[in-house]
Amino acid sequence: MTLPKRTQVAIIGAGPAGLLLGQLLHKAGIDAVILELRSADYVLGRIRAGVIETGTVGLLEEVGCAARLRREGLVHEGVEISFGGARHRINFHQLVGRSVVVYGQTEITRDLMEARAACGAPTLYEAEDVILHDVTTARPYVTFKKDGAVQRLDCDFIAGCDGSHGVSRRSIPTDVQQVFERAYPFGWLGILVDKPPVSEELIYANHERGFALCSMRSHTRSRLYIQCDLDDKVENWSDARFYDELAKRLDATAVARLEQGASIEKSIAPLRSFVAEPMRYGQLFLAGDAAHIVPPTGAKGLNLAASDVFYLSRALMEFYIEKSRAGIDAYSATALARVWKAVRFSWWMTSMLHRFPNSSGFEQRIQHTELDYLITSEHALRAMAENYAGLPY
Ligand code: APR
Ligand code: PHB
To answer: Which end of the chain is less enclosed by CB atoms within 10 A, N or C?
Structure first.
Protein backbone atom coordinates (compact mmCIF):
# COMPACT_ATOMS: atom_id res chain seq x y z
CA MET A 1 0.00 0.00 0.00
CA THR A 2 1.45 3.39 -0.94
CA LEU A 3 0.90 5.78 1.89
CA PRO A 4 -0.16 9.34 1.23
CA LYS A 5 2.53 11.95 2.00
CA ARG A 6 -0.03 14.08 3.82
CA THR A 7 -3.11 13.34 5.87
CA GLN A 8 -5.36 15.20 8.30
CA VAL A 9 -4.79 12.97 11.37
CA ALA A 10 -1.73 10.76 11.88
CA ILE A 11 -2.70 7.99 14.33
CA ILE A 12 0.17 6.27 16.15
CA GLY A 13 -0.77 2.72 17.18
CA ALA A 14 -3.23 0.12 15.89
CA GLY A 15 -4.58 -1.07 19.22
CA PRO A 16 -8.30 -0.66 20.01
CA ALA A 17 -7.93 3.11 20.57
CA GLY A 18 -6.15 3.84 17.26
CA LEU A 19 -8.30 1.50 15.17
CA LEU A 20 -11.60 2.75 16.63
CA LEU A 21 -10.56 6.38 16.12
CA GLY A 22 -9.50 5.55 12.57
CA GLN A 23 -12.93 4.10 11.75
CA LEU A 24 -14.87 6.94 13.38
CA LEU A 25 -12.86 9.52 11.41
CA HIS A 26 -13.20 7.49 8.20
CA LYS A 27 -16.98 7.46 8.67
CA ALA A 28 -16.96 11.23 9.11
CA GLY A 29 -14.90 11.70 5.93
CA ILE A 30 -11.77 12.79 7.79
CA ASP A 31 -8.49 11.38 6.43
CA ALA A 32 -6.28 9.47 8.82
CA VAL A 33 -3.26 7.19 8.48
CA ILE A 34 -2.43 4.62 11.18
CA LEU A 35 1.24 3.78 11.85
CA GLU A 36 1.75 0.61 13.91
CA LEU A 37 5.11 -0.67 15.15
CA ARG A 38 4.19 -4.35 15.11
CA SER A 39 2.66 -6.72 12.58
CA ALA A 40 -1.09 -7.23 12.56
CA ASP A 41 -0.63 -10.81 13.78
CA TYR A 42 1.46 -9.62 16.71
CA VAL A 43 -1.19 -7.09 17.70
CA LEU A 44 -3.86 -9.80 17.51
CA GLY A 45 -1.73 -12.16 19.58
CA ARG A 46 -2.10 -10.13 22.76
CA ILE A 47 -4.45 -11.70 25.35
CA ARG A 48 -6.54 -8.93 26.94
CA ALA A 49 -9.70 -8.60 29.04
CA GLY A 50 -13.18 -8.54 27.64
CA VAL A 51 -15.99 -6.74 29.52
CA ILE A 52 -17.51 -4.14 27.20
CA GLU A 53 -19.57 -1.15 28.39
CA THR A 54 -22.74 -0.06 26.60
CA GLY A 55 -20.98 3.12 25.38
CA THR A 56 -18.16 1.12 23.78
CA VAL A 57 -20.65 -1.18 22.06
CA GLY A 58 -22.44 1.94 20.76
CA LEU A 59 -19.22 3.26 19.19
CA LEU A 60 -18.48 -0.10 17.58
CA GLU A 61 -22.00 -0.09 16.19
CA GLU A 62 -21.48 3.43 14.85
CA VAL A 63 -18.58 2.15 12.71
CA GLY A 64 -20.34 -1.06 11.72
CA CYS A 65 -18.08 -3.30 13.84
CA ALA A 66 -20.58 -4.77 16.33
CA ALA A 67 -22.18 -7.55 14.28
CA ARG A 68 -19.93 -10.39 15.54
CA LEU A 69 -19.99 -8.96 19.08
CA ARG A 70 -23.81 -9.05 18.96
CA ARG A 71 -23.72 -12.62 17.61
CA GLU A 72 -20.98 -14.10 19.82
CA GLY A 73 -20.75 -11.75 22.81
CA LEU A 74 -22.41 -12.72 26.11
CA VAL A 75 -24.77 -10.09 27.53
CA HIS A 76 -24.38 -9.94 31.32
CA GLU A 77 -26.93 -8.09 33.43
CA GLY A 78 -24.97 -8.55 36.62
CA VAL A 79 -21.79 -9.60 38.36
CA GLU A 80 -21.11 -11.54 41.55
CA ILE A 81 -18.98 -10.58 44.51
CA SER A 82 -17.96 -13.37 46.86
CA PHE A 83 -16.58 -13.00 50.36
CA GLY A 84 -16.94 -14.81 53.66
CA GLY A 85 -17.86 -17.99 51.74
CA ALA A 86 -20.99 -16.46 50.18
CA ARG A 87 -21.79 -14.90 46.77
CA HIS A 88 -23.77 -11.73 46.27
CA ARG A 89 -25.21 -10.78 42.88
CA ILE A 90 -25.18 -7.17 41.74
CA ASN A 91 -27.97 -6.83 39.20
CA PHE A 92 -27.02 -3.86 36.96
CA HIS A 93 -30.20 -4.24 34.95
CA GLN A 94 -32.43 -3.86 37.99
CA LEU A 95 -30.27 -1.17 39.62
CA VAL A 96 -29.41 1.08 36.67
CA GLY A 97 -31.11 -0.49 33.62
CA ARG A 98 -27.76 -1.38 32.05
CA SER A 99 -25.82 -4.49 31.01
CA VAL A 100 -22.32 -5.28 29.73
CA VAL A 101 -21.11 -7.59 26.96
CA VAL A 102 -18.41 -10.19 27.54
CA TYR A 103 -16.40 -10.33 24.31
CA GLY A 104 -12.60 -10.55 24.05
CA GLN A 105 -10.66 -7.36 23.32
CA THR A 106 -8.65 -9.34 20.78
CA GLU A 107 -11.89 -10.00 18.86
CA ILE A 108 -12.73 -6.29 18.89
CA THR A 109 -9.27 -5.50 17.54
CA ARG A 110 -9.75 -8.14 14.83
CA ASP A 111 -13.18 -6.74 13.85
CA LEU A 112 -11.78 -3.20 13.60
CA MET A 113 -8.73 -4.32 11.63
CA GLU A 114 -10.91 -6.18 9.13
CA ALA A 115 -13.26 -3.20 8.75
CA ARG A 116 -10.31 -0.89 8.12
CA ALA A 117 -8.81 -3.22 5.52
CA ALA A 118 -12.23 -3.60 3.89
CA CYS A 119 -12.70 0.16 3.48
CA GLY A 120 -9.14 0.57 2.19
CA ALA A 121 -8.21 3.14 4.81
CA PRO A 122 -4.41 3.39 5.15
CA THR A 123 -2.70 1.43 7.95
CA LEU A 124 1.01 0.73 7.94
CA TYR A 125 2.17 -2.17 10.12
CA GLU A 126 5.79 -2.67 11.14
CA ALA A 127 6.48 1.05 10.94
CA GLU A 128 9.64 1.50 13.00
CA ASP A 129 11.27 4.46 14.69
CA VAL A 130 8.19 6.62 14.67
CA ILE A 131 9.21 10.15 15.69
CA LEU A 132 6.86 13.09 16.16
CA HIS A 133 8.01 16.49 14.92
CA ASP A 134 6.84 20.12 15.38
CA VAL A 135 3.79 19.06 17.40
CA THR A 136 3.49 22.60 18.84
CA THR A 137 3.32 24.17 15.36
CA ALA A 138 0.37 24.21 12.93
CA ARG A 139 2.27 21.83 10.62
CA PRO A 140 3.35 18.77 12.62
CA TYR A 141 4.74 15.71 10.89
CA VAL A 142 5.82 12.17 11.66
CA THR A 143 8.85 10.30 10.38
CA PHE A 144 9.19 6.54 10.48
CA LYS A 145 11.20 3.73 8.94
CA LYS A 146 9.64 1.10 6.71
CA ASP A 147 11.81 -1.63 5.21
CA GLY A 148 14.85 0.41 6.20
CA ALA A 149 13.75 3.57 4.36
CA VAL A 150 12.89 6.71 6.33
CA GLN A 151 9.56 8.22 5.31
CA ARG A 152 7.67 11.38 6.29
CA LEU A 153 3.95 11.96 6.84
CA ASP A 154 2.65 15.51 7.11
CA CYS A 155 -0.58 16.12 9.04
CA ASP A 156 -2.71 18.61 10.94
CA PHE A 157 -3.01 16.55 14.12
CA ILE A 158 -1.33 13.52 15.73
CA ALA A 159 -3.37 11.05 17.81
CA GLY A 160 -1.07 9.20 20.21
CA CYS A 161 -2.78 5.82 20.60
CA ASP A 162 0.45 3.90 21.10
CA GLY A 163 -0.10 2.56 24.59
CA SER A 164 1.90 2.90 27.78
CA HIS A 165 5.27 2.18 26.16
CA GLY A 166 4.73 4.27 23.02
CA VAL A 167 6.57 7.31 21.69
CA SER A 168 3.68 9.81 21.92
CA ARG A 169 3.52 10.48 25.67
CA ARG A 170 7.30 10.56 25.74
CA SER A 171 7.17 13.37 23.14
CA ILE A 172 5.61 15.70 25.73
CA PRO A 173 8.25 17.60 27.74
CA THR A 174 8.42 16.47 31.37
CA ASP A 175 8.02 20.04 32.60
CA VAL A 176 4.64 20.17 30.86
CA GLN A 177 3.43 16.74 31.97
CA GLN A 178 2.17 15.72 35.40
CA VAL A 179 2.13 12.03 36.25
CA PHE A 180 -0.01 10.41 38.94
CA GLU A 181 0.76 6.79 39.81
CA ARG A 182 -0.04 4.01 42.24
CA ALA A 183 1.65 0.62 41.96
CA TYR A 184 -0.15 -2.20 43.83
CA PRO A 185 1.92 -4.70 45.90
CA PHE A 186 0.65 -7.76 44.02
CA GLY A 187 -0.02 -9.14 40.56
CA TRP A 188 -2.61 -11.27 38.78
CA LEU A 189 -1.76 -14.78 37.64
CA GLY A 190 -4.19 -15.60 34.85
CA ILE A 191 -4.93 -18.68 32.76
CA LEU A 192 -7.06 -19.24 29.67
CA VAL A 193 -8.65 -22.71 29.45
CA ASP A 194 -11.17 -24.39 27.18
CA LYS A 195 -13.52 -25.36 29.97
CA PRO A 196 -17.01 -23.98 30.66
CA PRO A 197 -17.21 -21.06 33.11
CA VAL A 198 -17.96 -21.83 36.77
CA SER A 199 -20.99 -19.50 36.63
CA GLU A 200 -23.15 -17.59 34.19
CA GLU A 201 -21.67 -14.26 35.28
CA LEU A 202 -18.24 -13.10 36.49
CA ILE A 203 -17.27 -13.83 40.11
CA TYR A 204 -14.96 -11.37 41.89
CA ALA A 205 -13.76 -13.05 45.10
CA ASN A 206 -12.28 -11.45 48.20
CA HIS A 207 -10.56 -14.07 50.34
CA GLU A 208 -7.97 -14.02 53.14
CA ARG A 209 -5.66 -15.98 50.79
CA GLY A 210 -6.05 -13.24 48.19
CA PHE A 211 -8.29 -12.11 45.32
CA ALA A 212 -9.66 -14.37 42.61
CA LEU A 213 -11.71 -13.75 39.47
CA CYS A 214 -13.67 -16.22 37.36
CA SER A 215 -14.31 -14.73 33.94
CA MET A 216 -14.92 -16.16 30.50
CA ARG A 217 -14.58 -15.66 26.75
CA SER A 218 -17.49 -17.89 25.77
CA HIS A 219 -19.64 -20.75 27.13
CA THR A 220 -16.71 -23.09 26.49
CA ARG A 221 -13.67 -20.94 27.31
CA SER A 222 -12.83 -19.59 30.78
CA ARG A 223 -10.42 -16.88 31.90
CA LEU A 224 -9.39 -17.38 35.54
CA TYR A 225 -7.20 -15.19 37.75
CA ILE A 226 -5.70 -15.34 41.24
CA GLN A 227 -3.83 -12.64 43.12
CA CYS A 228 -0.13 -13.52 43.38
CA ASP A 229 3.06 -11.94 44.70
CA LEU A 230 4.61 -9.37 42.40
CA ASP A 231 7.88 -11.23 42.16
CA ASP A 232 6.21 -14.61 41.55
CA LYS A 233 7.04 -16.53 38.37
CA VAL A 234 4.70 -18.40 36.01
CA GLU A 235 7.00 -21.43 36.16
CA ASN A 236 6.22 -21.73 39.87
CA TRP A 237 2.61 -22.44 39.00
CA SER A 238 1.58 -25.76 37.53
CA ASP A 239 -2.03 -25.90 36.39
CA ALA A 240 -2.76 -28.23 39.33
CA ARG A 241 -1.32 -25.77 41.82
CA PHE A 242 -3.32 -22.95 40.19
CA TYR A 243 -6.65 -24.79 40.42
CA ASP A 244 -5.91 -25.89 43.98
CA GLU A 245 -5.29 -22.30 45.07
CA LEU A 246 -8.25 -20.94 43.10
CA ALA A 247 -10.58 -23.48 44.70
CA LYS A 248 -9.44 -22.39 48.16
CA ARG A 249 -10.59 -18.83 47.40
CA LEU A 250 -14.03 -19.62 45.93
CA ASP A 251 -17.38 -20.53 47.52
CA ALA A 252 -18.47 -24.19 47.56
CA THR A 253 -20.94 -23.87 44.66
CA ALA A 254 -18.28 -22.41 42.39
CA VAL A 255 -15.76 -25.07 43.42
CA ALA A 256 -18.26 -27.80 42.61
CA ARG A 257 -18.59 -26.38 39.06
CA LEU A 258 -14.87 -25.71 38.50
CA GLU A 259 -13.75 -27.97 35.63
CA GLN A 260 -9.99 -28.30 35.40
CA GLY A 261 -8.23 -28.40 32.03
CA ALA A 262 -4.82 -27.72 30.55
CA SER A 263 -4.17 -23.98 30.35
CA ILE A 264 -3.65 -22.61 26.84
CA GLU A 265 -2.21 -19.36 28.14
CA LYS A 266 -0.72 -18.48 31.52
CA SER A 267 0.78 -15.12 32.51
CA ILE A 268 1.33 -12.74 35.41
CA ALA A 269 0.39 -9.06 35.11
CA PRO A 270 1.35 -6.32 37.58
CA LEU A 271 -1.37 -3.94 38.77
CA ARG A 272 -1.00 -0.19 38.63
CA SER A 273 -2.98 3.02 38.29
CA PHE A 274 -1.35 5.70 36.13
CA VAL A 275 -2.53 9.01 34.68
CA ALA A 276 -0.51 11.53 32.65
CA GLU A 277 -1.87 15.07 32.35
CA PRO A 278 -2.55 16.91 30.07
CA MET A 279 -3.82 14.61 27.33
CA ARG A 280 -3.06 17.28 24.70
CA TYR A 281 0.17 19.01 23.78
CA GLY A 282 -0.13 21.35 20.81
CA GLN A 283 -1.43 19.26 17.90
CA LEU A 284 -0.76 15.99 19.74
CA PHE A 285 -3.68 14.26 21.50
CA LEU A 286 -3.21 11.19 23.70
CA ALA A 287 -5.90 8.50 23.93
CA GLY A 288 -6.10 5.17 25.74
CA ASP A 289 -3.16 3.53 27.49
CA ALA A 290 -0.86 6.22 26.11
CA ALA A 291 -2.35 8.51 28.78
CA HIS A 292 -3.61 6.22 31.53
CA ILE A 293 -3.45 2.71 32.95
CA VAL A 294 -5.97 1.15 35.31
CA PRO A 295 -5.72 -2.13 37.23
CA PRO A 296 -7.95 -4.74 35.53
CA THR A 297 -10.19 -5.14 38.59
CA GLY A 298 -12.75 -2.67 37.24
CA ALA A 299 -12.58 -3.94 33.62
CA LYS A 300 -12.08 -0.32 32.46
CA GLY A 301 -8.91 -0.40 30.29
CA LEU A 302 -10.51 -0.86 26.88
CA ASN A 303 -13.65 1.11 27.79
CA LEU A 304 -11.57 4.12 28.82
CA ALA A 305 -9.71 4.00 25.52
CA ALA A 306 -13.11 4.03 23.81
CA SER A 307 -14.37 7.02 25.80
CA ASP A 308 -11.21 9.01 25.00
CA VAL A 309 -11.78 8.19 21.34
CA PHE A 310 -15.42 9.25 21.65
CA TYR A 311 -14.37 12.71 22.86
CA LEU A 312 -11.44 13.03 20.43
CA SER A 313 -13.42 11.95 17.36
CA ARG A 314 -16.21 14.44 18.20
CA ALA A 315 -13.64 17.19 18.74
CA LEU A 316 -11.96 16.52 15.38
CA MET A 317 -15.31 16.32 13.59
CA GLU A 318 -16.24 19.67 15.16
CA PHE A 319 -12.92 21.13 13.92
CA TYR A 320 -13.18 19.88 10.33
CA ILE A 321 -16.93 20.02 9.82
CA GLU A 322 -18.07 22.94 12.01
CA LYS A 323 -14.74 24.80 11.83
CA SER A 324 -14.79 25.12 15.64
CA ARG A 325 -11.80 24.57 17.94
CA ALA A 326 -14.01 24.30 21.06
CA GLY A 327 -13.88 20.52 21.16
CA ILE A 328 -10.15 20.11 20.64
CA ASP A 329 -9.45 22.88 23.18
CA ALA A 330 -11.65 21.11 25.76
CA TYR A 331 -10.53 17.57 24.91
CA SER A 332 -7.95 17.06 27.67
CA ALA A 333 -10.18 18.34 30.49
CA THR A 334 -13.26 16.49 29.19
CA ALA A 335 -11.49 13.16 28.74
CA LEU A 336 -9.63 13.43 32.08
CA ALA A 337 -12.86 14.05 33.99
CA ARG A 338 -14.14 10.61 32.96
CA VAL A 339 -10.67 9.02 33.17
CA TRP A 340 -10.34 9.93 36.85
CA LYS A 341 -13.77 8.48 37.65
CA ALA A 342 -12.76 5.16 36.09
CA VAL A 343 -9.36 5.35 37.82
CA ARG A 344 -11.15 5.91 41.15
CA PHE A 345 -13.56 2.98 40.53
CA SER A 346 -10.72 0.63 39.53
CA TRP A 347 -8.72 1.68 42.62
CA TRP A 348 -11.81 1.15 44.83
CA MET A 349 -12.49 -2.32 43.40
CA THR A 350 -8.80 -3.23 43.80
CA SER A 351 -8.68 -1.90 47.39
CA MET A 352 -11.89 -3.68 48.37
CA LEU A 353 -11.14 -7.09 46.84
CA HIS A 354 -7.40 -7.77 47.32
CA ARG A 355 -5.37 -8.89 50.30
CA PHE A 356 -2.74 -6.22 50.97
CA PRO A 357 0.49 -7.55 52.48
CA ASN A 358 0.93 -6.35 56.07
CA SER A 359 -2.59 -4.96 56.24
CA SER A 360 -3.57 -4.22 59.84
CA GLY A 361 -6.56 -5.64 61.65
CA PHE A 362 -8.18 -2.22 61.33
CA GLU A 363 -7.63 -2.15 57.54
CA GLN A 364 -9.06 -5.66 57.17
CA ARG A 365 -12.15 -4.67 59.18
CA ILE A 366 -12.61 -1.60 56.99
CA GLN A 367 -12.32 -3.74 53.85
CA HIS A 368 -14.86 -6.22 55.17
CA THR A 369 -17.19 -3.39 56.16
CA GLU A 370 -16.80 -1.87 52.67
CA LEU A 371 -18.02 -5.20 51.22
CA ASP A 372 -20.79 -5.54 53.80
CA TYR A 373 -21.99 -1.97 53.16
CA LEU A 374 -21.93 -2.62 49.40
CA ILE A 375 -24.24 -5.63 49.56
CA THR A 376 -26.60 -4.18 52.19
CA SER A 377 -27.09 -0.66 50.81
CA GLU A 378 -29.28 -0.06 47.75
CA HIS A 379 -27.44 3.22 47.17
CA ALA A 380 -24.00 1.58 47.32
CA LEU A 381 -25.17 -1.17 44.97
CA ARG A 382 -26.50 1.38 42.51
CA ALA A 383 -23.23 3.34 42.57
CA MET A 384 -21.23 0.16 41.95
CA ALA A 385 -23.58 -0.92 39.15
CA GLU A 386 -23.45 2.48 37.43
CA ASN A 387 -19.65 2.52 37.48
CA TYR A 388 -19.21 -1.11 36.43
CA ALA A 389 -21.73 -0.93 33.58
CA GLY A 390 -20.19 2.35 32.43
CA LEU A 391 -20.66 6.01 33.29
CA PRO A 392 -22.30 8.15 30.58
CA TYR A 393 -19.98 10.07 28.17
N1 APR B 1 5.06 3.38 17.07
C2 APR B 1 3.92 2.82 16.53
N3 APR B 1 3.08 2.00 17.24
C4 APR B 1 3.39 1.77 18.52
C5 APR B 1 4.56 2.33 19.14
C6 APR B 1 5.39 3.18 18.35
N7 APR B 1 6.49 3.73 18.88
N8 APR B 1 4.60 1.89 20.44
C9 APR B 1 3.52 1.10 20.61
N10 APR B 1 2.79 1.02 19.47
C11 APR B 1 1.57 0.26 19.25
C12 APR B 1 1.56 -1.07 19.99
O13 APR B 1 2.24 -2.06 19.27
C14 APR B 1 0.06 -1.35 20.12
O15 APR B 1 -0.43 -2.11 19.05
O16 APR B 1 0.48 0.97 19.79
C17 APR B 1 -0.56 0.05 20.11
C18 APR B 1 -1.17 0.44 21.46
O19 APR B 1 -2.24 -0.42 21.71
P20 APR B 1 -2.71 -0.81 23.22
O21 APR B 1 -1.54 -1.01 24.07
O22 APR B 1 -3.68 -1.91 23.08
O23 APR B 1 -3.41 0.50 23.76
P24 APR B 1 -4.84 1.13 23.45
O25 APR B 1 -5.18 1.04 22.00
O26 APR B 1 -4.83 2.41 24.14
O27 APR B 1 -5.87 0.12 24.16
C28 APR B 1 -6.03 0.13 25.53
O29 APR B 1 -5.46 -2.10 25.68
O30 APR B 1 -3.80 -2.74 27.08
C31 APR B 1 -5.12 -2.75 26.89
O32 APR B 1 -5.96 -2.77 29.06
C33 APR B 1 -5.67 -1.97 27.98
O34 APR B 1 -7.71 -2.48 27.39
C35 APR B 1 -6.80 -1.45 27.32
C36 APR B 1 -6.48 -1.23 25.91
C1 PHB C 1 -11.21 -10.87 31.71
O2 PHB C 1 -12.20 -11.47 31.22
O3 PHB C 1 -10.06 -11.12 31.33
C4 PHB C 1 -11.47 -9.86 32.76
C5 PHB C 1 -12.76 -9.56 33.11
C6 PHB C 1 -13.01 -8.62 34.11
C7 PHB C 1 -11.96 -7.98 34.73
C8 PHB C 1 -10.66 -8.27 34.34
C9 PHB C 1 -10.41 -9.22 33.35
O10 PHB C 1 -12.21 -7.08 35.68
So the answer is: N
